[in-house]
Amino acid sequence: MLKPSSYPRHSLSRFFSPNPIAWAVGRDIIGRPMVTGPTTAADQPQKSNTRHFPDSVIGGWTLLFEVFKHITTLSTGSIVLLTTFMKDLFTNRAWSWLVGVAFVSFTAATCAAVVTMFFLGLMLSERKLGGKKEHVAEYMIYLTAASFFCGIIALLVFALKNLH
User: With contact defined as beta carbons under 8 Å apart, do 123 and 62 qualify?
Assistant: First the structure.
């Protein structure tokens, strides 16, 4: 009787052997031995606080990247509209300082969104989570959201106060 390791690589005879399961353990679908652990010093896992993320997570991070592209577009559009209509907004209006708050908030949201997209892009290209990049991106996500909503609320309160 042949030893399991002596079966031909692409032959069907391995499936008709007395013990096909023993032969298949540790082999891929066509019978090649699978490497189950590091084989050289270069293959040894390195100790770090980063972790690789699977392909299913890439879609979520890509959608988050797209959200920040939209926030950047909306914030810069609001800045352009505020500067265009600034002379009309500051003539005899109550609480006109809210327009300044909105302007600063939208500027901060735009800058924070650009930094967030930069770090999200780095994390997506490296396919790693953890470390300083993830922490910076997380803080920038919160700063972007807070700045954007602060600008929206400031403009909303200004509009409601000055509604005739």
Answer: no
